[in-house]
Amino acid sequence: MENTSVETEMLTVRNISAYYGNIQALDSVSIKILAGEIVSLLGANGAGKTTTLKVITGQLKTRRGEVRLSGRDITGEDPEKIANLGLTMIPEGRKIFPELSVRENLKIGYYTRRKKGSWQDKLPEVFEIFPVLEDRQEQSGGTLSGGEQQMLAIARGLMAEPRIMLLDEPSLGLAPMIVKKIFEIIKNINQEGTTILLVEQNANLALKLADRAYILETGRLVHSGPARELSQDEKVREAYLGSR
Question: Which of 154, 192, 160, 14 is nearest to 86 (CA)?
Fold first, then answer.
């Protein structure tokens, strides 16, 4: 896709290094996301993708480097404060509240950003994107299919009206047709004005969707550039796209 947004930096990650105990998980990782972009963060299991998201969202402290949201330093800030600034993360494995109804899950999403007004006013917009959730709004989240739970997780994030949404492995465990639908939804959300950082193991799909991409190996950035160029790079294709 072509990025037509004004080149304003939405999220800047500069030289972050992070550890779990004495084990280094990230080594001087830097990424930049412009307002209106979809940027993919790719790599194998253990490469540091989720760790990067945890540092951005304040769940894990960085020993070095900084994170800026629209120019504001949010390095090490409380996750709730970061969410209030318009950054929402959709975690791996959905992590909805299975015992609560669809409506109750969406209500929680609305108030994670301490918004004023009525959460019900946001529902029609979300249900327009996810009509299946409107049909199942009184069902408990745990009774939904895997694909519907992923839709609920994304919808809950949208209730907070984020400026940037971080998605961690949205295709994980889903059937190919459902994955296609989820990626179409992500594209539509972006076209409506939400900047996207997408962590995804399905590199082929991610590169088709994204404007640009970064590739991690054992906590270090090894490739970056326009998604179309990376998808055609012989070394990238061999290592990450399953083709030679």
Answer: 160
Give the type of residue at 83. Answer: A
C-alpha atoms less than 13 angstroms from C-alpha of 225 in its C-beta half-sphere: 9
- Tell the residue number behind the tokens 């084990």, with chain if given: 23
Rounded to two decimals, the pTM is 0.91
pLDDT tens-digit profile of 134-152? 999 999 999 999 999 999 9
Q: Report the C-alpha gap between 68 and 9 in whole angstroms.
A: 9
Which of 205, 223, 47 lies closest to 213 in space, CA to CA? 223
Residue at token pair 């809950």: 156
Taking Cα atoms as reference points, which of 20, 90, 42 lies closest to residue 217?
A: 42
User: In whole angstroms, what is the distance from residue 198 CA to residue 209 CA?
Assistant: 10
Cβ–Cβ < 8 Å for 149, 92? no
Work out the mean pLDDT of the chain and round it to a whole number: 91
